[in-house]
Amino acid sequence: MSDDKELIQHQIEYYRARAAEYDQWVNREFRYDRGEEQKKRWMAARKDMEKALADVHPSGDILELACGTGFWTVHLIPFATRLTAVDVSPEMIEINRQKFKDTQIEYIEADLFSWRPSSKFDFIFFSFWLSHVPASHFDSFWEMVRGALKPGGRAFFIDSLMTQESTAINHAQLEKDGKAKRKLNDGSEYEIVKHFYDPAKLEQRLQGRGWTGHVKTTGEFFLYGCLSDSKK
Fold first, then answer.
1. Which distant-in-sequence residues (6+ apart) come within 8 Å of 212 by Cβ?
2. Residues 206, 208, 210, 212: is their CA dihedral positive or negative?
3. What does the DSSP assignment read for 160-229?
4. CA–CA separation, 72 vs 157, rounded Å?
5. Where exactly are the structural domains of the chain?
6. Which one is the CATH code of 2-229: 3.40.50.300, 2.60.15.10, 3.40.50.150, 3.30.1490.20?
């Protein structure tokens, strides 16, 4: 557990420092540019994710966990009666806030490993976050999600498949040990939590914890799931 605490702290420091660079990864720029052909495949997979989210028709009170700079926030705003966006990084939140200047969004700065929402939601969304949850926190994280859902509510998540082409050109080889070494543009290095899930095994694992739904893949870069709590 102490190792997890140290990794989580490094992870927080990394994402705070990375906030101004984060969209370079999303847009395949600078160190993430692996050529036009790869970028086309990446962007096509992004479109698949956007369509998958729209197809499940989010609605009502929406909670976005680890909202980051807002790439997915923009896709949630049109569906939300009320949107709550949570992130541990004030730098990420400020970029998100400046992008939208939307009074409809309530921002909360909080550590998702200790934060508990004071209200319940119809739809909970998180992207590229589950892979950063230590194995020792997996169950407690999903219990937090369960506790935050209204009866009939749904959780939708997106995450990375294990492919070296997803990460920066100068990043170390990806491993399956639950950790990853990351660099920023200035060369500073951090070690963070990073798990890569097999979609079918993850779906089975979540079903065993009382969730119904599916976990699918775009084929190369991303996995995604839409789940309901069978206990509610």
1. 227, 228, 229, 230
2. positive
3. E-S-GGGS-TTSPPP-SSSEEEEE-TT--EEEEE-----HHHHHHHHHTTTEEEEEEE-SSSEEEEEEEE
4. 11
5. 2-229
6. 3.40.50.150
pLDDT in 10s for each residue of the chain, 232 residues: 447 889 999 999 999 999 999 999 999 999 999 999 999 999 999 999 999 999 999 999 999 999 999 999 999 999 999 999 999 999 999 999 999 987 789 999 999 999 999 999 999 999 999 999 999 999 999 999 999 999 999 999 999 999 998 999 999 888 888 999 999 999 999 999 999 999 999 999 999 999 999 999 998 999 999 999 987 6
Placement of tokens 């997890």 in the chain? 4
Do 199 and 180 touch, CB atoms closer than 8 A?
no
**54-64 burial, b for 16+ CB within 10 Å, e for fewer?**
eeeebeebbbb
CB-based contact 156:53 (threshold 8 Å): yes
Two structure tokens written together for 29: 């720029």
CB 72 within 8 A of CB 129: no
